Amino acid sequence: MKNHLTALISGILFGFGLGLSQMIDRDRVLGFLDVAGAWDSTLLFVLGGAVGVTIVAFRFVLKRQHPLFADKFYIPTKRELDLPLVVGAAIFGIGWGIAGYCPGPAITALVLGIWNPVLFLVGMIGGSLAQKWIADQNQAKPKT
Fold first, then answer.
1. At 124, which helix (H) or strand (E)?
2. What is the mean pLDDT of the chain?
3. Alpha helices in 1-113, H assignment, sequence order
4. Sign of the C-alpha dihedral computed for residues 77, 80, 81 and 83 taken in this order
5. Burial class of 47 by CB neighbour count within 10 A (0 to 12, 13 to 18, 19+)
6. Residue 11 sits in which domain range?
7. Maximum distance among all alpha carbons in the chain?
8. What pTM does this model have?
9. Shortest CA distance to 30 belongs to which of 80, 81, 97?
10. What 8-state DSSP symbol labels residue 23?
């Protein structure tokens, strides 16, 4: 129950922050990404705030033996870049640049009652299912 309550409170806080910072406004995000045109620098403060909090908070959090509601921290150990990571990051960036949404803001933007985030989420889910299907097909092929 504590995990679910913590997730709910974290999600509400995250969604509120996204709305307050206007990260759910696709025009604001697209303006921020348009560095060669009419660049909107306001989201730079959102990025700076997130990085600043992370730099300070992680130093204290990671000194703990374990998280409050888990037995251990799950910290990535892989250090090398591989093709799937680079291609996935590029596809994510292209999608963000075209749509003006990434998953968290798109889910939060559903409260606006407009179709853009709905269409984005349908495409995102479709792309995720297609990738899973392709990966499953590649694993099912016999090794020659």
1. helix 115-140
2. 90
3. 2-20, 26-33, 43-61, 83-99, 103-109
4. negative
5. exposed
6. 2-140
7. 55
8. 0.76
9. 97
10. T
